[in-house]
Design goal:
By secondary structure, the chain is α/β, with parallel strands linked by helices. The chain contains 11 helices and 10 strands. The chain has a 6-stranded parallel sheet, sandwiched between helices. A 4-stranded parallel sheet has the order 6-5-7-8, sandwiched between helices.
Length: 272
């Protein structure tokens, strides 16, 4: 497979842009084809069968762009669909759960790890299972935080309402004396400073978006698929697609990406 082919990145909506941002930082030579399933967001309250169906459609769409690897930039899809996709496609594919879990196990000193995520990701138990597959002695404490996603998407990252809700959500985990907290939804790194204040400086925050980009770089190097870094001052030509609401997506993307996104195309994903 050619090294100059793009990487496919997909998410249920805009949260996966945090993964795309980290890929741009960690592997600056790679082109990204991003798909956000904004018409069907959120995934966090849907069944596993539905999430697998959505993920298969998106992978088929990304395959039309001849991607050389795929990053599932959605914790819920990683938890519910990744193992199915790994069996069905030949393209290297990586999710966000395993990289974050591995880092949490390396980071914790007292063996007490917290996970915050959507309800579906928490109910899947994927983080707990994978952490215990590495170290069964690590205690894992999970908390669903369903309101964080809409608050982030409404731009209320620094709002006092978001801080109040965060304090309520995290109080339970603070009582468990965790020393490591996994931000188990791709929206949550955008709340990193707020969550850090709520938890205190003694708790390390693990950002699976960053860890996924690093793991993807290693996977591409292992497969001899890394693209060359671009000349100074130039960026690869990334492409962005959504299933609805391109204008709103662009506003959000331009608030977090390291360059201006000028065009987002709408795709009828149900045809794939």
């Amino acid at each position: 497979m050619s090294n100059d082919k793009p990487i496919g990145v997909f998410d249920s909506g805009v949260g996966g842009l945090t993964v795309a941002r980290e890929i741009m930082r960690q592997i600056p030579g790679e082109r990204i084809v991003y798909f956000g399933d904004t018409a069907r967001v959120p995934y966090g309250n849907k069944s596993q069968a539905t999430i697998i169906r959505f993920a298969r459609q998106i992978v088929r769409f990304l395959e039309t762009h001849e991607v050389k690897a795929i990053a599932v930039a959605c914790n819920t899809a990683s938890a519910y669909a990744l193992e199915v996709l790994e069996r069905e496609i030949d393209i290297p594919i990586i999710g966000v759960v395993k990289p974050g879990a591995r880092t949490a196990v390396r980071t914790t000193k007292n063996g007490r790890v917290g996970v915050i995520a959507t309800e579906a990701t928490i109910h899947s138990g994927m983080y707990t299972r994978y952490i215990h597959s590495i170290d069964p002695d690590v205690a894992v404490f999970s908390k669903a935080c369903p309101l964080f996603v809409p608050l982030v998407e409404e731009g209320m990252i620094h709002d006092f309402v978001t801080e109040e809700i965060a304090n309520r959500y995290l109080e339970e985990l603070k009582r468990q004396h965790i020393d490591t907290l996994i931000l188990g939804c791709t929206h949550y790194p955008l709340l990193r400073s707020l969550l850090g204040r709520c938890m205190g400086s003694e708790v390390e925050l693990v950002n699976p978006a960053y860890e996924t980009a690093v793991s993807l770089r290693e996977l591409l190097r292992e497969k001899d698929l890394l693209a060359e870094a671009p000349p100074e001052g130039r960026m690869p030509a990334h492409s962005f697609y959504v299933s609805d609401g391109a204008d709103k997506f662009e506003v959000f993307a331009n608030s977090i990406l390291p360059y201006e996104l000028r065009k987002t195309q709408i795709v009828d994903i149900e045809t794939y």
